[in-house]
Amino acid sequence: xxxxxxxPMVAKIxxxxxxxxxxxxxxxxxxxxxxxxxxxxxxxxxxxxxxxLVSGIITFIAAVHYWYMRDYWxxxxxxxxxxxxxxxxxxxxxxxxxxYLILKVAGAKKSLMWRLIFLSVIMLVTxxxxxxxYRDQAQIWGLISGIAYFVIVYDIWLGKAKKLAQEAGGxxxxxxxxxxxxxxxxxxxxxxxxxxxTPGWYEGIFGGLALDVVYNIGDAINKIGFGLxxxxxxxxxxxxxxxxxA
Length: 246
Ligand SMILES: *C/C=C(C)/C=C/C=C(C)/C=C/C1=C(C)CCCC1(C)C
Hints:
binds retinal
């Protein structure tokens, strides 16, 4: 599609295209969040900069994928499953890195980070198999993915990560707890989207929902929310350090 000026035409978004709308707004929200994290980063002490940088990288990677997904949806009217999972397989491991970075003050080891990354990749690759490759076995793949998800939940709520957070105490413990809630409740949005969009026993319950709307809401809450928790931690910790020095 081209016009008089040889510029590419912009696809129409119908007034009742809720999926297209959430892709559009999601894209803008991710861009705005990235600008916020990147621009605020240098105002903090060195030890927090990496965490805020990672928050910005997460929303930036998502912004780029949302740009493509928005277009893909507008052009084809179907779920951009491939872009979706490429985005997740980059951003979810980075969220695992965030857990490691904030627990480093309590002496978190890299092995904790790699374990979470490994589990998250298992969760996402098996999810992709069920959603895109072996759709008639979606229930089995979803179950395996769900088990990996629960191991992550266990690790951060009750395992080694929790002990480290308690040792760190104060603002770090508080931030860790909030991130744990994001993973338990915020990440639980995704299996709902999966059940809305794949065949299985659950079709009667979730079948009426639009998979992409559910995923897009999940992404906005989790990616931007996660970043803001880390940002808030940096603000709180910096304040109490300044108070202690005065
Ligand atoms: C920014 C993107 C995030 C935080 C994506 C998280 C995705 C999940 C927690 C997905 C989990 C899934 C299951 C637990 C079972 C069904 C398949 C998945 C991949 C949707």
